[in-house]
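So, read this over?
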Amino acid sequence: MNQTPIYQSRFEALNCCILIPTYNNEKTLGGVLQDLLLYTANILVVNDGSTDATRDILKDFQEINVHHFQENKGKGEALKHGFKVAEDLGYKYAITIDSDGQHYPDDLDIFLTQLEEKKEGTEILLVGDRNMGQDGIPGKSTTGNKFSNFWFLVVTGTQLTDTQSGYRLYPLKVVNNIKLYTNKFELEIEIIVKAAWRKVKVRNVPIKVFYEENRVTHFRPFWDITRITILYIWFVLVSFFYIHPRDTYQDFRKKGYKRFWKENIIKSQEPAHKKAAAIALGVFVGILPFWGLHTLLVFSLAAMFKLNKVVAFLFSNISIPPLIPFIIYASYQSGSLLTGRGFAWQLKPEDFDSTSDIFFGLWQYIIGSFALAGIAALLLWIVFYFLFSVTNQKQVIKP
């Protein structure tokens, strides 16, 4: 008599299944499936055109729902196919696990517990956190993960410590309603970014990981990192010129000017020095001579230094048309002082009567803009630090 899998009742109650995309993992696939069957029978495998013994191995697991691709299409295509099949089978959630043996089946409990505790009316997407700083994690994996984590924070405003783990829990209705364009490893990044943009709670959960020294991996460092980089470049453009402004505008409309100012700026839980730093950063970036890139820079730097992106963005708009001529003029004159040419109230055409004069004038402007930006940012930080400190003290004293 077959024993009921350990978590079968939980999987059934949550309408959840396990989805495994696999490609040429004949050494580990059988063991992974045998271990998972101890926990649940709700398993779906998508064989992504394997050319090894994968088909023969899967024949020994008749109780598992198996789908075969005739040729290799990429992990992303295997996942997309599996998501659609799983929803068609009536499942609401799918936990994805790689077939290379790096994941521990008993960590399924962590995903299921989070799903059981999920608040009604909210949706979650969970990504396993492999604790990439521990011993035994390949250096290239750690570097690539840090790169992805940073840009995920920039484009979504959500801090994750692991964005590349394949051990995840997906809400199928959400995922299948997202228009997805990638088809390889970068699809996992595309999903979590677009899910976060749809207000899905994307967060990490701690998991264990086992890295065998000679494990089979199909991740191609150069090409796959290049594809992920290109994807993030696109996400940066979309988030800076549409998503972030849209979210800020919607928040502003929902709260109104007074409430938006009080909740997002004045009464923020951040200490005074961080609120002042966000303003200083916005002004610093707004004065710099990187016209057309101010939004990109301010959001990237705000994310890097963990500052209020809304505040930084608002104050970066110091470079609006009425002020641009004054900023350029002040920057040029600042550069004139720094390069030893002295201060001149008037700029005359004869000052730029040669190519060398034009290039030197441009260089003078660039140097001056950085100096002006630094001085303005420092002064504003001092002023607003004082103002926010006084405001915070009044709020503490107020009964």
Remarks:
- Residues 284 and 373 are 5 Å apart (CA to CA).
- The two ends are 69 Å apart (CA to CA).
- The chain has a mean pLDDT of 86.
